[in-house]
Amino acid sequence: MAVVYNLFIITKSGGLIFYKGYAKFLRMDTNDSLRLASLWDSMHAISQQLSPIIGCLGIELLQADNFDLHCFQSLTGTPFLDDV
To answer: Sorted alphabetically, which SUPFAM superfamilies does this protein's record hold (predicted)?
Structure first.
């Protein structure tokens, strides 16, 4: 079972609606969370356009050495990001 460290809710236009850090040692400041939301929205939109698969919904998982960033696209188009 994975632990969620951060939760982000982003508007369809790329603005950050909600941010909650659940781990006290991994908190982000306001500017970093806004930058991450904006960067994710841009990468998500570009990946939809560049994908060879028709109907691709964009990036669903970004894996790094220290964390996994999951994107859950709601039916309304609002992305939810969690840092695991």
So the answer is: SNARE-like
State the Cα–Cα distance between residues 81 and 6, nearest whole angstrom: 8
Rg (CA), the chain: 13
Distance CA 71, CA 56 (A): 13
Residue in 50, 32, 41 with CA at minimum distance from that of residue 12 = 41
DSSP lists the bridge partners of residue 4 as none
Neighbours of 6 (CB within 10 A): 20
Report the candidate in 32, 37, 33, 36 with the shortest Cα–Cα distance to residue 15: 37
68-73 and 61-63: which strand pairing? antiparallel
- pTM for this entry: 0.77
